[in-house]
Amino acid sequence: MTQQTKELAVSILDLVPVRQGFPMGQAFEDMKNLARHAEQFGYKRFWLSEHHNTPTLASSATSILISKVLDATDTIEVGSGGIMLPNHTPLVVAEQFGTLETMHPGRVNLGLGRAPGTDMQTARALRRTTQETAFQFPEDVEELQRYLGPLEAQESVKAYPGVETEVPLFILGSSTSSAVLAAKLGLPYAFAAHFAPQQLESAVAIYRSRFEPSDTLAEPYVIACVNVVGADSAEEAEQLSTSSDQFYLNVVRGTKNPLMPPVDTMDGRWSYAEEAMVKSMARYTFKGNAEQLGEQIGRFAGELPIDELMAVSYIYDQDKRVRSYEILKEAVSNAVRLP
């Protein structure tokens, strides 16, 4: 009997980067333009991150950005990658995403993370408390589930809108602890391999081995977030990827430069140690033309049991960023199949 296969689902994570030489407002226009093209290309979902006190990323008011993308598109699923739950009360998140789901039924995703998405001083400013709320993450997720669930499961405080919307939840993480929680709750699991690749394999193995079916998910579901730079030639992809190199060099140095244009070479722009740290952080970066991307991602999906690939692309020229995602979708559709 011939084994049936399915196409690897492909999605986008947008951090809404601010480009050198452009005002912050342009990042929002870039976001909406990319989302419209993603829908046209057949991407499954378009997620937006949450970051604070970061002048290079315009994604602090995540639920507002999600609303804008939902308004600018018609069918693609839109959500958070993620809402950093320690920064918010579960009731407020339930009300916000219940509102979004009520306005756009069946199109809203709620990815949840336990990190603050910023430095600790800013985290304290967000929470207005010295309490370490990240430790409450498992309880907060379950409280949020209840607010979004059936009326008979509610307590005296209810989320309106929110009750009975059943907005799908996803657990985000970059470590094995998040995998344990996602498995225990029977929720889909998204791993941030685009900047924290070290525990990807072990986290996926733990999640799949410990998964407990839930009312919302019968089998484990894994999303791997990676970096992608696609172009019409390998040489162009290599050059475009220097914007990504400079972005991660920002992280290594703790600087706050906007997304920079590509350069001919990174030689002389980083030290040997900095280059090693950037390449380690961005280890899961796939770049090249359509054929090369298909081969690289095919190997990746063949070695790691994932259900969906979520791509981040730090490409300065927006037409080339759109083209990169078009090439990626074509490459996966033509070359990558899952059993």
Automatic annotation (TrEMBL):
Pfam families linked to this entry: Bac_luciferase
InterPro entries xrefs: Bact_Lucif_Oxidored, CmoO-like, Luciferase-like_dom, Luciferase-like_sf
Query: GO cellular component terms?
Result: cytosol
Question: Where in this chain does the record put each Luciferase-like domain?
Answer: 25-295
| SUPFAM superfamilies named among the record's database cross-references | Bacterial luciferase-like
GO MF terms on file?
A: oxidoreductase activity, acting on paired donors, with incorporation or reduction of molecular oxygen
Similarity comment text for this entry? To bacterial alkanal monooxygenase alpha and beta chains.
Descriptive protein name: Luciferase-like domain-containing protein
